[in-house]
Every structure is written in structure tokens, then in C-alpha cells.
Amino acid sequence: MSELDSRIPNNVALSQDPRLQRALLRWQPAFLNWWSEMGPEGFQGDDVFLRTAISVEPSGWSHFDYVRMPDYRWGIFLAPPEQDRRIGFGDLAGQPVWREVPGEFRTDLRRLIVTQGDTEPASVEQQRQLGKTAPSLYDLRNLFQVNVEEGRHLWAMVYLLHSHFGRDGREEADALLERHSGDADRPRILQAFNEPCDDWLNFYLFTMFTDRDGKYQLLALAESAFDPLSRTTRFMLTEEAFHMSVGETGVGRIVERTAEVMAAGEDDPREAGVFDLPLIQRHINFWFSASLDLFGGEVSSNAAHYFANGLKGRARESRRQDHAALDGVYLMELPEDGALRERDVPLRNAMNEILRDDYVRDCERGLARWNRILEAAGLGERLTLPNRRFHRQIGAYSGHRFDPEGRLIDEGVWQRKSGEWLPTADDREYVRHLMVPVYEPGKMATWIAPPRSGVDGKPIGYEYVKRP
Ligand code: BYC
Ligand code: FE
Ligand code: FE
Predict the structure, then answer these.
(1) For residue range 319-339, what is the model confidence (pLDDT) as tens digits?
(2) Could you give the CA distance from residue 356 to residue 265 in angstroms, rounded to a whole number?
(3) Using CA positions, which residue lies closest to atom 27 of ligand 1?
(4) Residue pLDDT, tens place only, 251-294
(5) Could you give the domains of the chain?
(6) I want to staple 413 with a disulfide (CB 3.0 to 4.6 A). Which of 23, 324, 346, 409 is the partner?
């Protein structure tokens, strides 16, 4: 392995491409500088038991060891090329995929890559204070694993910008480190990535719902006719599965503790130092609706254009029948003159909503698993997903008020009721009050049950993070 390959592990023959090498070696110090200023605060000197991607072989793609986060080897990996891969959908279906960016789609592809790339460092910024209040060393390690992998996802998009978009690609790569989550002047591009995520309840809901948007957007980009984008996003999906499992099992462990306290006959779970179900429900309502916005408008000419030209497909396009999507319509209920009316939308213009459908189904499976925990504890209460029209800021339902069942309501009702539906100042104070760090191996905070098992075959009580 050359010195370069050990600094930046890769399967893109980086050592044989001097121009790209120069660009990435120039960007790397800026990235490390960003990581130390905007990455996890207070833990940069700790030894963390982390997995590092080292190849794309399914049998041995990653390696676990103690590493200080600033020494993490952020690598560049593309899934192996598919022989004779063809465009799978839209007007260009059947043509060979592109190894280079066609001039006419350069702006569109750059925009998709920049939007994707912007979310990765944004999430690290949102989560930078969380280490200080981790409920266990196991959870602390998982947080940092998610953070370093989001850092790698940023590298993945920066690789595409540097290797395929010339000078403006380099400028966009720099700008990815200059916008910041929640910054008044230079915020992140998509709103969910400017929301604070500074306590662990919000963190688990974010990784459950917002990282899951990532999964579906990556599945759609994995269909792209621009083959380097397809191969990069396919490999990113292997890491994404872990992020969502942190969220789903994290909320599951919270629900388990709450259920335990409720089943023991405690009327007010807050008396026992756990989260009550209505508070959890309000957080589900918030992060589910914020994540639905990330799919864009219900009716979108951008999405139609991306689909027509093979830039962005549907999730798992090959499992579908009609890859042209030219004749069909999608029946939607859209607000018009103060009521919901059924409208036929040309299929290609409904691509954002079709991807959102897949996402909602996936979320429902997670909710069902949480509800099985309540059921097993003998409780009648259930958690639910709000209707997709509820609390939207983007698309056809923004600018109107809907209740969690999806009924159109007026502003007065919203003002009276929204405190029951979305996290309140009082909720926030209660959540904060429970955020006390637990750094003793194997110990858990009061409000969360232990996980089923540890990481990489290690026990739950393993010293996943060694404090200096
Ligand atoms: N916020 O035609 P429309 C992840 C804009 S998460 C602000 O409906 P389109 C991760 C839109 O730009 C995955 N603005 O939108 C998770 C457009 O502006 P123009 C991230 C928004 O283009 C956790 C206008 O509204 N990946 O990986 O069809 C941790 C009309 O919109 C928003 C991607 O997003 C919004 N939410 O769809 C770490 C994939 N939505 O043209 C990582 C790449 C829309 O009027 N991005 N607008 O100026 C895309 O595919 C598309 O840009 C979107 C929007 C799906 C986001
Ligand atoms: Fe990511
Ligand atoms: Fe992720």
C-alpha cells in the first residue's frame, strides 16, 4: 500500500491520478480543521472502538479497532462496477450508463450531489454536543461511529465533485465546509439539517427518521445513469443500515424502559425518571414530519426532469414493471379552495411522492416493532405515525394546517392544539433534565434499557470509549 493509500484508503486508484490526488490532499486539511472545530466536542483525544471501511468485499469490508477520531481513515469506496450496466428508466432507458458527466446534465447532477453532500457534515454539526450527555459508553461509541461515517459520506460526495466537476466542483467542495447547521447567514441547504439535535431523544429520532430519508435518497441516486454516483451511493448504503438501527433500537430501548415503569403501576413515568409516551409521540410527530419534507414537493417538475433523463430513479427501479412511467397517473388529495380534492398527477411529476410512499412504509415497520414492546408489557397504549400532511413546511400541504389524522383545520384549532402534537418548552426542559452522562462501562442512564448485545461480538460492558 502506498503512503497515500494508507492516508486515504480507496478503491479508485487514487495513487495513479495525480490531479485528483492534489485536489484531495488540498481539501483534507480543511476537512480535518472542520472536524476539530465542528465535530464531536470534548472527545477528540479519546480512543474509540470504531469500524473503518477498508474495502468493498462483502466478506471483509470493515475493520474494528480503537482509534482517536482525528486519526480515523476516511476512505473513498465505490461499489464494484456492473458489467455493461444500462440506464434503467426514463427516456434514455437501455443506453449505456455514463462514466463522465454529460454537459447538458452537469448543473443538475452537481446540484443533486451538493444537496446530498451538504446533509452529511450538517448532521455531524447537529450532534456535536451529544457526547457530553451519553447514556452509556455503548451509546457514546455508536454516536461517534455514526459521526465518522457521515464524515466519510461527505468524502464520497467530495470525491465526485473533485473528480468530475473541475473548478466549480472544487468550489462546491469548499463550500460544503463553510455552510453550517443553524447558521443565520450560511445555513445548511435542507431545513431538517438546521434543527437542533442536542439531546439523545432527538438523536435517536433523527437517526430513525432522518437517516432513513438518507436511505431512500441514496437508493434513488443508486439508480442514476451517472455511474460513479450510482456506485458511490451503493456503497454508502452499507453504512446507512447501522445509522437507522441506532435510531430504531435507541427509541425501542427508551420505550422498553417506559413500558417497564408503566407496567409496574407507576402513574406518572416522569416520577421514575423515564420518558412518558405522549412526549415520545410528540417527538415522533416532529421528526417524521420534518423528514417527510426532505423528499421535496408532492408535485415536482424537478423530479420529472430527473427521472426523464436518468439522473435520479425510484428506489429499486429494477423490481418495477414500467420503467418509462410516461402514461400513468398518481391519485393525490391536494388542498384547493379550503378543501382536499382528488387530483390525477402525471406519474413522472409524482416521483417524490412515490419515494415518500416507500419511506413511510419502512417507518411503519419500525413503529410496529416499538408497539410490540408495549404489547409485550401488557399495555394498551400505542405509538403512531402522524398523517403525512401534518406539520409540513415543503410541498402542497405547507401553508395549511392539518391535525395528526390529516384533517384540514383552521389556525385557531392549530394554536389551541399544537402543544399536544409537537414537543413543548416543558418537554424540552424535562428531556434536558434527564441528560446526565453515564461513562461507567455497562451502566445505563435511568431512561433507557440496555441493548440486546454489544458491538462486534464484545459484551455490553466493554470499554467502548477509553477516556484519557
Ligand atoms: N428544504 O421540486 P421540488 C441524508 C426546494 S438525507 C429546502 O419539490 P426537488 C442524511 C427545491 O430545492 C438525504 N428546500 O424539489 C440523513 C426546489 O428549489 P428550486 C439527502 C427544499 O428538487 C441523516 C423547490 O424547493 N439527499 O443523506 O424535486 C444524516 C421545489 O422543490 C426542500 C438528498 O436530498 C427542503 N426540504 O426535491 C446524514 C438527495 N425540498 O428548484 C445524511 C438529493 C425542496 O425551486 N436531493 N426544496 O430552487 C434531491 O434529490 C432533491 O434536491 C430533493 C428536493 C429531494 C431534496
Ligand atoms: Fe450519510
Ligand atoms: Fe446516515
Answers:
(1) 999 999 999 999 999 999 989
(2) 39
(3) 214
(4) 999 999 999 999 999 889 999 999 999 999 999 999 999 999 99
(5) 3-466 (1.10.620.20)
(6) 409
